[in-house]
């Protein structure tokens, strides 16, 4: 029996096609994945992402613990609600998971991690916390809603007509506001403006109902994947895993090298990779011919080198096949290649990700030279 | 519940078959299949005049979710493909038994239509797949 989120009855009421995902019964779509995708790019959509793992870190050593645990530096978080995207690395700098860390009032923190990595992440946290005075608490009674799209701000203040809603609407990207068990943050996984709200289950059902009544369409995991792919946001388990480091997956920008004395886990291995040059690069590919690239397909370069598609699919915004790929660092200068799709080689060209930002396609605008 | 017209024949791999008056057969995928696949975004058609054995790979349909092989329900030669699907593969979602047809075959003399399912037989297959 899979887990179900507090919104499960609403998903059924809204006509969801429910599929198992990381041990949860989750909505894949509510009729048309493409219509849901366009709704988020053009107006707004509502996602239930309550399956994600919420872990609270408190105690006297919470800050030094996380400064050692994460490749990005939580010392950058100055105000409660502020958010930081980071990789959690092993000693070899392989990516155990990616996560968002939020600062809570009173010097505590909240981590939001991938549902599929929940058990492994918690085990790692507990092992690495042994020498710190911290409390690690996996939360089970909270829901996570994501309200994403250009109309998200307008809808938030319309539906959540409270001082908290008004404060939420004023947030800058990657900032948040806490009130009791509620957190509203200007974060997301779509490449659009929007909010993620973490709140008690009962309140989430009520809020989701109000948002739906206000005309916000629910969006399933299917469109969540095509939206994040267009935004070139990595998916753990596809575009990155423990065999790859952040420099090899387009996430060098998330590594806080300064201050030099901060000894985060994986720093030595990552430093060596930086010095000698990473073996792989992440690339964004747009298919020039017919077909849909899929994860695992080979990428061929003129000189015989090969890369691999890590995530591929149909871009509803561009109406083309697009892919994130891992390519040899030696091929980083090549801007054309072929993707081997079911025994057929189809021409593709490289762009500087993302493929789509704030509703508009960027394909071809910045061809990597 | 998906629609399963009573006047068509079906393969257990979710293709439907309609025998036309001119002796040719029109083939598509069922309403149940398009529902399972989700929004269709690309169709790869076979070359005209290709000879297909029954149960041979015939075409590929790709949805937002994944690529799926279609299998020829009977032995025959490809005489027509639905060109409209190149630009509007979503016709398969909106009208799987009409405008969303995939291709037409000239069946071989020994084409075995008796092995195909009727609507009741296919309904059982579709229901069993909903696990």
Task: Explain how this protein is built.
The complex is a heterodimer of chains A (369) and B (131). Chain A has helices spanning 8-13, 33-42, 62-69, 118-128, 152-159, 163-169, 201-213, 221-230, 267-276, and strands at 17-21, 24-29, 45-48, 53-58, 83-89, 95-104, 108-113, 135-139, 142-148, 176-179, 182-185, 194-200, 217-218, 280-287, 298-300, 306-315, 320-328, 336-341, 344-351, 356-357, 360-361. Chain A has 369 residues and is of the alpha+beta class. Chain A has two domains: 1-276, Gyrase A, domain 2 (2-Layer Sandwich); 279-369, Elongation Factor Tu (Ef-tu), domain 3. A six-stranded mixed beta sheet of chain A has the order 10-11-12-9-3-13, sandwiched between helices. Chain A has a six-stranded antiparallel beta barrel with strand order 14-17-16-15-18-19. A five-stranded antiparallel beta sheet of chain A has the order 5-6-7-4-8, covered by helices on one side. In chain A, a hairpin with a 4-residue loop joins strand 16 and strand 17. The longest helix of chain A is centred in the middle third of the chain and has 13 residues, at 201-213. Chain A is globular. Chain A starts with 7 loop residues before the first helix and ends in an 8-residue tail after the last strand. With 131 residues, chain B is an alpha+beta fold. Chain B has a single domain (14-125), classed as OB fold (Dihydrolipoamide Acetyltransferase, E2P) (Beta Barrel), CATH 2.40.50. In chain B, the strands form two sheets. Chain B has a six-stranded antiparallel beta sheet with strand order 1-2-3-9-8-5. A three-stranded antiparallel beta sheet of chain B has the order 4-6-7. The two termini of chain B are 14 Å apart. The model of chain B has no long low-confidence stretch (mean pLDDT 95). Chains A and B meet through loops of A and strand 4 of B.
């Amino acid at each position: 029996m899979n887990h179900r989120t507090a919104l499960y009855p609403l998903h059924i009421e809204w006509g969801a096609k429910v599929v198992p995902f990381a041990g949860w019964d989750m909505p894949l779509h509510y009729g048309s994945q493409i219509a849901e995708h366009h709704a988020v790019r053009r107006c707004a959509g509502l996602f239930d992402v309550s399956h994600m793992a919420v872990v609270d870190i408190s105690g006297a050593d919470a800050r030094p613990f996380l400064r050692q645990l994460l490749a990005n530096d939580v010392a950058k978080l100055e105000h409660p609600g502020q958010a930081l995207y980071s990789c959690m690395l092993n000693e070899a700098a392989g990516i155990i998971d990616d996560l968002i860390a939020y600062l809570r009032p009173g010097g505590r923190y909240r981590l939001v991690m991938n549902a599929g990595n929940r058990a492994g992440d918690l085990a790692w946290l507990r092992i690495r916390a042994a020498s710190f005075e911290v409390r690690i608490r996996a939360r089970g009674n909270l829901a996570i809603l994501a309200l994403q799209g250009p109309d998200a701000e307008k809808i938030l203040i319309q539906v959540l007509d409270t001082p908290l809603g008004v404060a939420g609407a004023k947030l800058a990207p990657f900032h948040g506001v806490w009130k009791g068990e509620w957190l509203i943050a200007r974060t997301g996984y779509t490449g659009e403006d929007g909010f993620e709200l973490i709140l008690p289950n009962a309140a989430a059902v009520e809020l989701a109902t109000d948002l739906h009544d206000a005309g916000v369409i629910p969006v399933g995991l299917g469109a969540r994947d095509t939206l994040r792919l267009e935004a070139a946001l990595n998916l753990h388990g596809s575009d990155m895993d423990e065999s790859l480091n952040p420099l090899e997956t387009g996430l060098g920008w998330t590594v806080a090298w300064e201050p030099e004395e901060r000894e985060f886990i994986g720093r030595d291995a990552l430093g060596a990779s930086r010095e000698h040059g990473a073996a792989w690069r992440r690339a964004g590919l747009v298919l020039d011919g017919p077909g849909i690239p899929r994860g695992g397909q080979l990428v061929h370069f003129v000189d015989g080198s090969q890369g691999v598609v890590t995530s591929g699919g149909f871009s509803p915004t561009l109406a083309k096949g697009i892919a994130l790929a891992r390519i040899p660092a030696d091929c980083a200068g090549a801007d054309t290649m072929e993707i081997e799709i079911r025994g057929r080689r189809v021409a593709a060209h490289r762009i500087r990700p993302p493929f789509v930002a704030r509703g508009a396609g960027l394909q071809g605008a910045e061809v990597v030279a | 519940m998906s629609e399963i017209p009573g006047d068509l024949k079906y393969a257990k791999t979710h293709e439907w078959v309609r025998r036309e008056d001119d002796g040719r057969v029109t083939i598509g995928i069922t309403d149940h299949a398009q529902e399972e696949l989700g929004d269709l975004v690309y169709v790869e058609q076979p070359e005209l005049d290709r000879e297909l054995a029954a149960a041979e790979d015939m075409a590929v349909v790709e949805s937002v979710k994944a690529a799926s092989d279609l299998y020829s329900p009977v032995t025959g030669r490809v005489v027509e493909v639905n060109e409209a699907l190149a630009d509007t593969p979503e016709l398969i979602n909106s009208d799987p038994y009409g405008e969303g047809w995939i291709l037409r075959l000239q069946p071989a003399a020994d084409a075995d239509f008796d092995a195909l399912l009727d609507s009741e037989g296919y309904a059982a297959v579709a229901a069993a797949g909903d696990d």
